[in-house]
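Quick illustration, no need to memorize.
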Amino acid sequence: MIGLSTLIPILIRRMEITDLEEVSQLDQQSFSLPWPESSFIFEIEKNEVSRCWVAETRDERGDTHLVGMIVVWFIVDEVHIATLAVHPDMRKQKVAQRLLAHTLMDAFHSGAKKSFLEVRKGNLAARSLYHKFGFIYVGIRKAYYQNNGEDAVMMNLERFEIDKLESFL
């Protein structure tokens, strides 16, 4: 495993249909209620408001590996973060931070003014990440998650701070 003091280099690029198998595996490893493959196909090929990104890295042989993914919906001037996942072996490498910063900067440059999301109440690591970006708590969606009835915390980012986003890359 890579030392925690050295971040792995990653490339962030648009998600492609050829990424589907790895994206689905990552989603299944990350969530107790993963998306079906058909949802990712829809997001990549049909949803005009969807922006899908992946983070990949190369091993010592030069083979690429998908280590993170994010799907957001860009509607008028708002960005709804639909899902964000990082491979379990690559957590604590700031992959989620870099993916989120990249995605929000892309949205800002396309005219986004704010962002929002729902996150499991018990997912303290994700909530901490979003808080670091300036997202604030705005409410609870009771029993939002179907598999266990867990509440979702609703969080908003009312203003993009480009200098802060750039510092997270």
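The domain at 11-167 is CATH 3.40.630.30 (Aminopeptidase).
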